[in-house]
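User: I'm putting together a small comparison set for a docking exercise, and I want a reference complex before I start. The sequence is below, and the ligand is iron/sulfur cluster. Could you produce the 3D structure with the ligand included, as structure tokens?
Assistant: Of course. I'll restate your input first, then give the structure tokens for the complex.
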Amino acid sequence: MGDFTVSLVKKPRYVIEDACTGCTSCVEYCPVEYPDKFNQGISDNKAVHIYFAQAIPLIAYIDESCIYLKEKKCRICENVCQANAIDFHQKPEKLQIRVGAVVLSPGYEVYDPAVKEEYGYGRIPNVVTSMDYERLLCATGPYEGEILRASDKKHPQNVAWLQCIGSRRLTEGDNSYCSSVCCTYTQKQVILTKDHHADAKCTVFHNDVRAYGKDFERYYQNTAALADTRFIRSYVNIVGENPENHNVIIRYSTPDEGVKEEEFDMVVLSVGLNPPEDNQRLAEMFGLELDQHGFCKGEPFNPMNTGAPGVFVSGAFQGPMDIPESVFSASAAGSQTGELLDYRRDKLTKEREYPSEKDVTGEEPRIGVFVCHCGANIGRIVDVPGTVEFAKTLPNVVYAQEQLFSCATNSAKEITDMIKEKGLNRVVVAACSPRTLEPLFRDTLREAGLNQYYYDMANIREHCSWCHSKEREASTAKAQDITRMSVARACLLEPLSEIDLPVNKAALVVGGGIAGMTAALSIAEQGHEVYLLEKSNELGGLAVRIHDTLDGLDVPAYLEELKAKVFKHPLLHVYTGAEITEATGYVGNFVTKVKSWRGLVEIKHGVTVVATGSGVYEPNEYLYGQDERVMTHLELEERITNGDEGLAEAETVVMIQCVGCRNEERNYCSRVCCGESVKNAIKLKKQNPERDVYILYRDMRTYGYMEDHYREANELGVRFVRYEPEQAPQVEAAESDEGKPVLRVSLPDYILSTEIAIDADYVMLAAAVVPGEDNVELSGLFGAALGEDGFFKEAHVKLRPVEFATQGVYLCGAAHYPKYIHETINQAYGAAGRALTMLSNDIVTVSGSVCEVKEDACMGCRACLEACSYDAIEMRKTKGGPKAVVNPVLCKGDGLCNACCPTGAIYLKHFTDEEVFSQIDAYAPPDEDILGQIDAAVNQ
Ligand SMILES: Cc1cc2nc3c(=O)[nH]c(=O)nc-3n(C[C@H](O)[C@H](O)[C@H](O)COP(=O)(O)OP(=O)(O)OC[C@H]3O[C@@H](n4cnc5c(N)ncnc54)[C@H](O)[C@@H]3O)c2cc1C
Ligand code: SF4
Ligand code: SF4
């Protein structure tokens, strides 16, 4: 452990990396054509090619289909390459590298439906897999973003998706588990299909719709509400192909209409996830165990830990998971690696060096405009070449070009090269939202020796092609307007300096549940002082009410061990009964005042981790609180664990799912309650197999391996009855035929098409998980945003899932969204990993785009102080009276103060009045009095 030697064989590329310019002349002339694996074999490729449009590095390689490699003939590529980059003398290279730890992230293999005749894949041309369909949807796909069907290359207008292909089945060749991701990717594909062809008819044949992730429920509802879109709950058979039009005929049945046959232009098989192909080899090589399904067996309470010392696992090799979960686990594996190799931190890293900055102040603006296709995202709607030509006509624009993906490495280099070659001193990229990619483009300017604030971004994706996707001309006109406005502003941009701040190396973790304790321990293990705040008197959070997991793991024993480690750690300081009275400061330098059993303390820390968990809904329906036989799932778990006598005698128990959520008030799925109910139902059945246990559900969201437990519950005789929210179960106190007091639960049975009534001894409610009661307050204290449902909102769902937009503040556990313990641990290590990245720096840089006060113009009215949410402004005595002064480190540059200053004394650098007005004027000349029109609209 801590010292591995890894032997690698690097295959020859037959192309000299440093010489290849990626011009693709060789690809054009290569005579070999064969099905392109990257595009699922739908289109052809050449023996010499670039792997895909955004490959890094973006240079060619020659594969084994090359005629010269097979028959020693051809070598056309060598002759056409202007750069002399082809080198057939290259040989496989053996490499040995020494590393301290290994992170395995081999992901998964997509299920191959060709293994089963019944799916018709490979036999019926218009049956495709969801992966084929992904490629068809993509701008770099086989038909450059056009969805064409194989039989006649026509656009399919009537598409069906069949869910759970290869998943949730015990049949030979299939997987028993749920693949977790296919319900949601199908919804995405439906939305994109409608984007491509607004009139297309989309039908999804599904079992349970497993929209269990953050914001997924709303996404599902939005998809289902699209015009001509149907979600049909039914098993489906592929009957065959209509020989006349090659449509695919499928058979299905619904309770209302019985068995039906219907024809579709195209059928998409929503295939599941298999373990990676070389799982066995990896297991043998690294000495790890595979689980019953062939994925890597992680430690139950630490899914990144393979059990093989120094070998960690992240992503879908842990088991099926989606992108945000993969990103948590990647960051988490990073944190685990950091714990192991902390003693070697900074030994191999090098400071990045930028060329010195050129002073261009006083020069005439020379603007370069780069217009991005964003694959087909922009290019399909906006006329990109036309916008480039338009940009060239704008004042001060000396250069303009289009780019397929401006964010790709080669495009960034192109921008840097053009800055140097054309002497550009301002850059406008017309692409997507500055929210995610602006830092990348600014960096590009730095690489070229320009001040990074000479950059502006015109958002022609979110503001044009996405929201006006049906109006190509108007969308293009708007893109050109936005580009013109951006160019006008760019002329006035000024260079700014950023501020370097020292980083206090301590961390504050708020919340002492599993998430908080895990994150705190991981940070402390890497040599940092950690202050762990818990508002109750005990560590453990909600998990103290959980006895075991669905896999049978002993939660109390785990918690005891975790708590012991926390209390023993010399760098970890626990404050129970803690209440935060004040939180001030900024990244690297926070100051938090805390009242706790230890008295009042002031804690100085460089980062904050919010791990405050969630609450549980207290139902006011189904007689909860009125009849003690009605309880929540956690109360049932407690009663089972404590051997409650009444429950032991019970003959019939009914569980009602989705209580208090998936409704108008709480439009999200609580994620953990289906598994919780299955767990309790199995226990009740095992206790007394004669007992009747019913689960009344809307969709059983037992994703991943929980599907095996759902099946076990079925096999044990637990009865699952589906209900619709419009006809939710009714619960009333009644008497059974034998005169026994019961809780009568009535609801329609859609399969039997009848009304059923169940006489139960107990009713259990799967009560919603709700946001923590302190969320609003904490949000204000730490500048931590809240989402629509009241849970904390990450900076970016995929790219920054464990941090807030506010620098230095991180997020994990149920505070982010309900999740199971192993998922909580994944995310907690992930947050620790990100926090440690910050703590490992001695300095942190903050934005130069902050407010400043023109002292002469300030009349000391304090209006700006009132407006600032970050306490960034204070009054200072001067000879001319009290004047406002901005602390640039605290200022977040939201500009609220600018709007209320009566004299215009306070202004935001990089968004000055002149810059903003220049944009407005560029949109419409001053004589159109746009400002007057805005004022009039506001006053209406
Ligand atoms: C009904 C139900 C059943 C479940 N069953 C299972 C199961 O079988 N298996 C499984 O894996 N998972 C299960 N879970 C999920 C599991 O409980 C969570 O994954 C886990 O508890 C989340 O840990 P956490 O630390 O994020 O949050 P929590 O456990 O909620 O801990 C957060 C802590 O922060 C503290 N806190 C809150 N606000 C503040 C503040 N302002 N200052 C300081 N401290 C604060 C809280 O008091 C609490 O101690 C279940 C959840 C529910 C609701
Ligand atoms: S239920 Fe599971 S296996 Fe089936 S489509 Fe949904 S996520 Fe995939
Ligand atoms: S019971 Fe809970 S996990 Fe299951 S679907 Fe309803 S809200 Fe989601």
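The mean pLDDT is 93. Residues 507 and 530 are 5 Å apart (CA to CA).
User: Thanks, that's exactly what I needed.
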